[in-house]
Amino acid sequence: MSKERRILTDEEKKIVREKYGKLCYICEVSLDGYADNEIQYDHIFSHASEITGGEDLDKFAPIHASSNPAKKNCHLGKGTKTWYDYKEELRIKSKLKKITGLKDLCKDAKQCYFKKISDTEIVLNGKHIQLYNQKLFGKEDNLYFFDDIDVDYIENDNLIQLRPLDEDKILPLTLHLRGSVQLLPSIGRLDLKENKIKIFDGQHKAVAQIIGNEKKSIPCIIFVDPDISSLQRTVFDAHSKFLQQRYKRSHIMDKIAEQYKAKVEQWKLAHGDFPYSEMDILKGESKAQRRKIILASILEELSSCGAFIDGKYNFETDFVDITKKKRARHNPMLWDNYERLVSLLVNLEPVSETSVLPNNYRADEIGNLKYILGNVYWYAIKDKWNPDNPDSEAHQLAVRYFYDKVFEVYVPIIVKALRFSYEQKTDRALREDEGLCYREQFSEDLKKRFARIFERLFRHGIWANPMHKEIFRATTSGPIADLFSKEGIDYIYLAKLE
Ligand SMILES: [Zn+2]
Hints:
This protein is α/β, with parallel strands linked by helices. It has helices at about 10-20, 85-95, 100-105, 165-180, 205-210, 230-240, 250-270, 280, 285-305, 315-320, 335-345, 360-380, 395-400, 405-425, 445-460, 470, 480-485, 490-495; strands at about 40-45, 60-65, 115-120, 120-125, 125-130, 130-135, 145-150, 155, 185-190, 195-200, 215-225, 320, 335. It binds zinc ion (ZN).
């Protein structure tokens, strides 16, 4: 991390530009018209194992980086992803924009040539495939086969409705399927009138494999000329009453926290009962995995430390909703939002100081986090959130505070305001990856400043203004962000000193 970045000479920059055909590595659009200071040469392949050297030219690529808002800056939005992942994300998103579902991706399938040899064998496009039979009620035949089918031979089934495409799922699903076997195939039927294969279930996986992973064939289960009305009913039932309860995110976090504890036990077996650091335990894990484990441990610590707000509440158990139901929530804050808020406030990197050392601030971090969460309670929940009286104005106000998209807009603003306020008070800039709460206990003066930020946000006139009611209910964050910026609610306003 502290590795010195090599500065390329003009000649080297030219070589790198030529190598990429004078195109930006990220968006693959020309670099023409971009001055030297509007192009950044980034180290796009990161080899964590290489400690020194090896910064040879091969690893650099040119990227648009203009500070002129009318020009491209392909750095924005990368975050902590690798360049490759970020480029992939942009590629997949732009492809998804052009389609509404599998129906646009696989519009008109090629006709198949097939011949049923027996009840246990079919020939499809020249390939012999095993047939299976699922007899219903012991007599009705339902022949099907399993194969990797060339995407040219599949199309969307218009008779049996696919579930609508949820774009947010495609990207994580794509990345997941790159590293894991696809457990469930897409499901379709062989239509004997048109001689075509039509997919009626598993559209997300199909789109993720075709667009995300650029697969030319996908694993499918295909029923041979089934009864369509009974399939329609089956698909409907499968996605309503028989739908398995999905793993709740909070449970996944519990599992990860458990894994961490198991690793600690292993370490102790190998090294004895000595003080250990997070780094000792997590050395072999990927960066993303380490961050996940640290977050899970912090969340676990917070939930298991009993009541810490007003002497009677535990933030997670009393105010976080883990049922994932968007309507009629019993607790105000959605789990994902809780997780996100905490992750933005803590140090997610493993520390090398053992827990007995004074410069290990994990315990203080929990204390500081409790203080911040206490403010959320104090200004946004207390005397407001009251599901027993759902129509009351106070409850409606609290509902607005915790709408998913609204929260998405103001959480980064609040976090930035808190950090800014800390920097002002201490006259010291925080590193980007430096968690605000990971330090000695906040001083009383800092606490006052922080509380004022929450007060400014949640007591702002914007919330109760009937004109904005509809905007707060928006299903995308755009209009809400616009409203906040129109009203001048930014981190500078929130952190302003009297
Ligand atoms: Zn670009």
